[in-house]
Design goal:
Serine Threonine Protein Phosphatase 5, Tetratricopeptide repeat
Length: 204
């Protein structure tokens, strides 16, 4: 499904609303293994993107993704800003204006690799990568949006029993086990929101 300006504007609004709705929950997750500000940081970042949605939506998709990434880097703060920013800026750079779904999956894989390099982390380290990797795999398999959404939620939940190896949570050692990673949770929420939009707007 190609995205037009209306689609992109609506997606920005929906993602902002989803993060605002779960802001306190994300904060509680982060309080258990971090400094407790992930929800507030994500809310601030998505609100900044929302304020620029008209200008962003007027851009071609690759440029729009790069712009969103830059806004998130400048406004989220902490570790999440550079990671989400890297993901979207690299994805935008990798996409051709008229790329198909196979191109998107390949560009997403390269963007995720850039996030891994930026965070010096990988699968199983209890980060948002533990959602991004399986979601990309489902996209590459041409899975339906509802399947991708379910994959994202399951992947985030699976971080609960992982030992954190990166970030502030890693200082807790074994005590990080038993808590869902807040970055993985926010990533899943955003992925689920996007998938639901595609599910509802893709012609049958």
């Amino acid at each position: 499904m190609p995205l037009d300006a209306c689609d992109l504007s609506q997606l920005i609004s929906l993602c902002r609303a989803q993060i605002e709705r779960h802001c306190e929950h994300l904060g509680r997750l982060d309080s258990a293994i971090g400094d407790g500000d992930h929800g507030a940081n994500m809310k601030r970042g998505l609100e900044a993107v929302y304020r620029e949605r008209a200008d962003i939506a007027s851009l071609p998709l690759p440029a729009a993704l790069e712009r969103i990434g830059l806004v998130l880097v400048m406004t989220i703060g902490g570790a999440a800003g550079p990671l989400y920013g890297t993901l979207l800026m690299e994805l935008g750079r990798g996409l051709a204006d008229e790329g198909g779904r196979a191109d998107f999956a390949a560009s997403l894989a390269r963007a995720i690799a850039a996030v891994a390099r930026r965070g010096r982390s990988g699968p199983g380290d209890k980060t948002l990568l533990d959602v991004l990797y399986p979601v990309q795999a489902e996209i590459a398999r041409h899975a339906a949006p509802d399947r991708i959404a379910a994959c994202a939620r399951t992947a985030a939940q699976a971080t609960e029993m992982m030992l954190a190896r990166r970030g502030r949570a890693s200082y807790l050692g074994a005590r990080s086990v038993g808590h869902e990673d807040p970055g993985a949770s926010s990533c899943a929420l955003l992925a689920m929101t996007i998938c639901q939009y595609f599910q509802e707007h893709t012609p049958s």
